[in-house]
Design goal:
This protein is of the alpha+beta class and 193 residues long. Helices cover 31% and strands 19% of the residues. The strands form 2 sheets. It has a 5-stranded antiparallel β-sheet with strand order 6-1-3-2-7, with helices on both faces. α1 packs antiparallel against α5.
């Protein structure tokens, strides 16, 4: 049995699979989430992926039938961050500051800060999780935009002190399973000699 080597780049085949997932899902995305780290952040991809998994596990436990796509990127300062498209809506409230209005979820922001080890960092609680609603009338346009945005290679290059990057994207199970009548599942098919 062969083992895969370390992933060092966002390869073309991987980008094409991501585009396929985003463009072919029957689920309607309702929120665009961004998860970031403060100035101190782990340099190990396995640790940040464990953080993401813990966050998404919390969402899966709270919301049934949740579907999502996530993408892993590097900010200009080198910090890892995640973008997530969700087909459900995390509860939010509209707030304002000197930069304008924004949607905020205190519960999920505190959860993300706790997961990353920054539960007492008020600045990270405020800025570590961003939620942008997706209106019903721009879902198709969003899918096209996100497919283009998600495949930008310059944000997939991490600084030299970051290691263990792993996969650059992932999706919930059965994200692209057709939701229509007349579709046969493999286990329903009868094979005759």
């Amino acid at each position: 049995m062969s083992t895969r080597g370390e992933i060092k780049s966002f390869y073309k085949k991987s980008r094409l699979r991501l585009l396929h997932q985003i463009r072919n899902t029957q689920h309607q995305f309702k929120q665009f989430i961004t998860l970031t780290y403060p100035s101190e952040y782990p340099r190990d991809g396995k640790i940040v992926k464990a953080h993401l998994n813990k966050f998404l596990t919390g969402i899966r436990q709270k919301f049934k039938d949740v579907h999502y796509v996530w993408v892993f990127e590097a900010q200009t300062r080198g910090a890892p961050h995640f973008h997530i498209l969700l087909n459900i809506e995390l509860p939010t409230e509209l707030k304002s500051d000197q930069h304008g209005s924004f949607y905020f979820s205190e519960v999920w922001s505190k959860r993300w800060s706790k997961i990353t080890g920054h539960k007492n960092n008020e600045k990270h609680i405020r800025h570590g999780l961003r939620i942008d609603p997706i209106s019903d009338n721009n879902t198709n346009r969003l899918a096209s935009y996100m497919a283009k945005y998600y495949t930008k290679n310059e944000q997939k290059v991490f600084k030299h002190d970051f290691f263990g990057c792993g996969r650059f994207w992932g999706a919930s199970r059965e994200l692209t399973v057709p939701i229509s009548q007349g579709v046969y599942k493999a286990q329903d098919m009868v094979i005759r000699p």
